Each structure stands twice: as structure tokens, then as C-alpha cells.
């Protein structure tokens, strides 16, 4: 069973370490275990209990009241909250728990419930993109394993593909052609697949190339497909901090307008260039496509 430090727990549940310690001292909530050398740690069961406590606390239950409840009562109350698919904080916590325990059934159930209730666009905006950003940070700091990130992202990827297949592309007389790809060293396809969903929903044509496309291939693809726009997504921290250099390499091999989305776009200053449109969030993406 995986062991977590209090700093790991802090990242996983979104509560400061000193608050967790205060819950322990004042209310006896989830005391940590200790190794033979007296090092404090939490296990997966402790993490599950803490996630449930946070879910209740963020939905109006005072810690003093939660502390008087048994684990069974806490679990039952959280189960009731789980069906509130519009509650993004609860669903993010539930997704975290399912990812850490590799529970595909529960993870898929949450995805299906949120999408059925809110639709894919709102689910991506309020639940999945924030969740994946947190997972990426926890992976980089070593709080969770790379396998946890791959488990979650692949299930999300599969679900977006299902939603794309469900769409009936509307007739659009002035539809545009979009070339969708990820540049070298970028592997995370979630945002790009979501862009493909939005484009199909709006009636546009797409050529989807996927991840890590060599810069040298772009000119040949553009000459053959003749897109009106190209679209990339930048989310991987492995790309480094010079995002403008990567965008510049892409544009050097394209002669069509470039749309750039992804979490890195909102974190760095993007240089203004002709034929470049940064899309910082889901609303920017939707607005741009609606205005076409």
C-alpha cells in the first residue's frame, strides 16, 4: 500500500498541512501512522477518509460536526453528494480518489455522470481541465506516480473520443479546414481531442495528426491538406519555459493561421504575432469558433 507524507496529502486534497494537523490535534481526525523509525505517514485508506472529510467540509459541514461522525456516516453523506454532478469540487475529489486507487469503474461513472448532466464542454471547463492540471503538478512533484496520470488521462481521452463519435456534424456552408496536431515533445492529447470535438460540433473539417509531429513534416501536410487554420495545444511542463520558441518553430513551418490552446498559454506571456491566436481557456475556444 502506498505511503503518503503530509505534504503529499496537502497536494492531493488541496488542504494546507497545518490545517490537517489542526484537525488531528483538535478533533482526533485521521491521525497519521508511524514507521518503525517514527516517521509519520498516511496510507490510501487515510487518504480516502480525508478526501471524504474535505468533500463534506466544502459543502457546508463544519469540521467539529464531521469529527463526531463515524466513517460509515461520512461515507454515506459523501455518496449522496456524488450524484450532484454539477458540484465540481466534489467530482474533482472523487476523480482524485478513483485515480489513486486505479478504480476504472468509479472514474468512468463520474465522467459519464458529469457529461450527461452538464455536457462535455462544461465538464471539461469546470472539472476535467482543472483536475488534469492538478494531476500534472502532483506528478511533477512525485506525489503521485506517472501511472496515475496515464490512467486518468487515457480514460478521459477515451471518453472524449466516444463523445466525438456521438456527434452528427451539422451542415455548414462556410465550413473551414483545421489541421490539429501536437509539436515535438508534447504528448498530452486531451486538449487537442476536445478541440476536435468543438470543431466537429460547429460543422468544420479536421485533419487530426495526434502527438509529437516532427516540424519537418508540417510543410508537406499543409501543401497536401490545404487547411484554413492549424491548431496546437501546449500543456507539458517538459516543453520548458520558452513557449514562444516552440510556437515560433511551428509557425516557421506553416503558412496558415495558428491557434494555440493549453494550460501553458495562460501561464506565460505569449508574443503577439500575425496569424497567431492564443486561446487561454475553454471560453476563448468556444467564442473563436462561434465567430467564424
UniProtKB/TrEMBL annotation:
Superkingdom of source: Bacteria
InterPro entries on file: Cbl-bd_cap, Cobalamin-bd_sf, DNA-bd_dom_put_sf, MerR-type_HTH_dom, MerR_fam, Meth_synthase_dom
Keyword Transcription belongs to the record: yes
HTH merR-type domain mapped to chain residues: 3-72
UniProt cross-references to PROSITE patterns, sorted A to Z: HTH_MERR_2
Keywords recorded for this protein, A-Z: DNA-binding, Repressor, Transcription, Transcription regulation
A GO MF term: DNA-binding transcription factor activity
Keyword Metal-binding (UniProt): no
One Pfam family hit: MerR_1
PANTHER family on file: MERR-FAMILY TRANSCRIPTIONAL REGULATOR, REDOX-CYCLING DRUG-SENSING TRANSCRIPTIONAL ACTIVATOR SOXR
Protein name, per record: MerR family transcriptional regulator
Organism: Pedobacter frigoris
Amino acid at each position: 500500500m502506498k505511503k503518503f507524507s503530509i505534504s503529499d496529502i496537502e497536494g492531493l486534497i488541496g488542504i494546507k498541512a497545518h490545517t490537517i494537523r489542526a484537525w488531528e490535534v483538535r478533533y482526533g481526525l485521521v491521525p497519521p501512522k508511524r514507521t518503525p523509525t517514527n516517521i509519520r505517514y498516511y496510507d490510501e485508506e487515510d487518504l480516502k477518509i480525508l478526501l471524504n472529510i474535505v468533500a463534506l467540509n466544502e459543502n457546508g459541514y463544519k469540521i467539529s460536526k464531521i469529527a463526531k461522525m463515524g466513517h460509515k456516516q461520512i461515507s454515506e453523506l459523501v455518496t449522496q453528494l456524488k450524484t450532484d454532478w454539477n458540484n465540481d469540487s466534489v467530482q474533482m475529489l472523487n476523480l482524485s480518489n478513483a485515480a489513486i486507487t486505479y478504480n476504472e469503474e468509479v472514474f468512468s461513472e463520474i465522467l459519464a455522470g458529469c457529461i450527461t448532466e452538464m455536457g462535455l464542454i462544461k465538464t471539461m471547463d469546470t472539472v476535467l481541465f482543472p483536475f488534469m492540471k492538478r494531476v500534472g503538478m502532483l506528478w511533477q512533484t512525485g506525489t503521485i506516480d506517472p501511472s496515475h496520470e496515464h490512467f486518468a488521462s487515457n480514460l478521459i481521452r477515451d471518453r472524449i473520443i466516444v463523445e466525438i463519435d456521438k456527434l452528427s456534424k451539422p451542415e455548414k456552408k462556410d465550413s473551414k479546414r483545421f489541421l490539429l496536431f501536437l509539436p515535438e515533445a508534447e504528448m498530452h492529447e486531451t486538449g487537442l481531442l476536445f478541440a476536435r470535438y468543438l470543431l466537429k460540433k460547429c460543422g468544420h473539417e479536421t485533419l487530426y495528426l495526434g502527438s509529437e509531429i516532427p516540424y519537418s513534416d508540417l510543410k508537406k501536410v499543409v501543401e497536401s491538406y490545404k487547411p484554413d487554420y492549424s491548431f496546437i495545444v501546449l500543456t507539458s511542463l517538459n516543453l520548458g519555459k520558452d513557449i514562444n520558441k516552440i510556437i515560433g518553430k511551428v509557425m516557421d513551418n506553416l503558412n496558415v493561421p495558428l491557434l494555440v490552446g493549453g494550460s501553458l498559454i495562460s501561464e506565460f506571456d505569449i508574443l503577439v504575432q500575425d496569424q497567431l491566436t492564443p486561446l487561454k481557456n475553454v471560453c476563448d475556444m468556444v467564442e473563436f469558433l462561434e465567430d467564424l
